[in-house]
UniProtKB/TrEMBL annotation:
Gene3D superfamilies cross-referenced by the UniProt entry: PPM-type phosphatase domain
Organism from which the protein derives: Streptomyces halobius
Record protein name field: Mucin-2
Domain of life: Bacteria
Domain PPM-type phosphatase: start-end pairs: 3-245
UniProt xrefs under SMART domains: PP2Cc (SM00332)
Coiled-coil stretches noted in the UniProt entry, renumbered to this chain: none
InterPro entries tied to this protein: PPM-type-like_dom_sf, PPM-type_phosphatase-like_dom
Length: 247
């Protein structure tokens, strides 16, 4: 039985611009999910290559944050991304990466609003905090919806530094967490996969049963069905990667 699997649906988008990748180097296994901004073939192709690049780099370094920072810096250094006009037209994506290795803690790093969860002994915990305007301007009495959850404040492909992002929105360009190694189920999900569940008030753990392939498929299929039930004209790309981890 495979210990990990991914599933994705295109929804009503013109192209599938989410991508996943898994790479193992010297026992360190990197799990990556990217959610591309836009729905063009150019974004789709870039996201697929970027996901593979991030998985290779994170696995080689054996650490999620080190891998993501290296790839983020490499894209940020591209000449076109240094140009204030051209950078707006370059492909970008919300990125999440987790690295697991025997005898080591689980490391997770992200930029954007793709999320990582761990299911431990029936309890589901979200490890990430979204990089979007809703985090900067949370719902309150005077503004019930808060800032837009669809407007990212950080992403892979940006040229902004930690300091620049921190000064503008009070969080760095990249954040990371370390989780003690233990038996758990890891979920990486794009916003098109987790948002419909949250909007419907679902307990996400209810959709993570079965083997990883069954759980990933159930999670994404239900997400798209919920999105279409709410608005028959729109369902985002939905992608989930599920992995069973052992310490």
């Amino acid at each position: 039985m495979h210990t990990y699997a991914a599933a994705q649906l295109i929804g009503t988008r013109k192209a599938q611009c989410d991508a996943t990748a898994v790479r193992t180097v010297n026992g360190a296994r990197a799990f990556v999910l990217l959610d591309g901004i836009g729905e063009t073939e150019n974004v789709r192709n870039w996201v697929r290559a970027a996901a593979a690049r991030l998985a290779r780099t994170a696995a080689r370094r054996g650490d999620a944050e080190a891998g993501l920072r290296a790839v983020y810096a490499a894209y940020a250094a591209e000449r076109d991304r240094q140009d204030s006009y051209l950078r707006e037209h370059m492909p970008k994506a919300a990125a999440i990466v987790a690295v697991s290795a025997p005898g080591r803690p689980l490391t997770v790093a992200w930029c954007g609003d793709s999320r990582a969860y761990v299911l431990v002994r029936g309890s589901l915990r979200c490890l990430t905090a979204d990089h979007n305007r809703r985090r900067v301007y949370p719902p309150c009495f005077l503004w019930s919806k808060g800032g837009s959850r669809n407007q990212l404040t950080s992403c892979l492909g940006s040229a902004d530094t930690d300091e620049e992002v921190q000064a503008e929105v009070q969080h760095p360009a990249i954040e990371a967490v370390t989780v003690p190694a233990e038996n758990c189920r890891l979920l990486l999900a794009s916003d098109g996969a987790y948002e419909p569940h949250h909007d419907a008030g679902h307990h996400l753990s209810d959709y993570l049963t079965g083997d990883p392939a069954e759980a990933a498929a159930h999670f994404t299929e239900t997400a798209v069905a919920l999105a279409l039930a709410n608005d028959p004209t729109h369902a985002d790309n939905a992608t989930a990667l599920v992995a069973d981890l052992r310490p």
